[in-house]
């Protein structure tokens, strides 16, 4: 998988249309923040910028973006 971004105004997308930006929302305090997802790994810990709690994936999810994000992680998007 190459890390080439598409040209144009669409930010956070690969050439193949994969979305790289996700809005992650803390279930404890409600803080939302747009984050760039890692391409070649699942992120299993995320520290909320609002309350500081460390989020971990829910049972059955591979990463915090699959559990709390607006877009599932790149590895799940490939399936």
Structure description:
By secondary structure, the chain is an alpha+beta fold. It has one domain (about 20-75). The protein has helices spanning about 65-70, 75, and strands spanning about 20-25, 30-35, 45, 55. The strands form two sheets. A two-stranded antiparallel sheet has the order 1-2. Strands 3-4 form a two-stranded antiparallel sheet.
Secondary structure blueprint with pairings:
Elements: E1 21-25, E2 32-36, E3 46-47, E4 54-55, H1 64-68, H2 74-77
Antiparallel strand pairs: 1-2, 3-4
Multimeric status of the protein:
single chain
Strand order of the largest sheet: 1-2
Give the biggest beta sheet. Answer: 2 strands, antiparallel
- Percentage of residues in helical conformation: 10-25%
Low-confidence stretches: 1-10
Give the overall shape.
Answer: globular
Helix count from the secondary structure assignment = 2
The number of E-state strands comes to 4
Structurally, the number of domains stands at 1
Task: Please trace the helix and strand order, writing H or E for each element.
Answer: EEEEHH
Overall mean confidence score, pLDDT? 85
Structure classification: alpha+beta
The CA-CA distance between the termini, in Å, is: 13 Å
- Rg over alpha carbons: 13 Å
Share of residues in strands:
15-25%
């Amino acid at each position: 998988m190459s890390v080439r971004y598409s040209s144009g105004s669409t930010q956070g997308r690969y050439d193949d249309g994969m979305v790289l930006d996700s809005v992650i929302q803390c279930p404890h305090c409600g803080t939302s923040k747009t984050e760039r997802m890692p391409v070649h790994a699942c992120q299993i810990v995320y520290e909320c910028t609002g309350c500081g709690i460390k989020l971990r994936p829910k049972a059955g999810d591979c990463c915090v973006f699959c559990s709390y994000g607006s877009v599932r992680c790149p590895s799940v998007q490939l399936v």
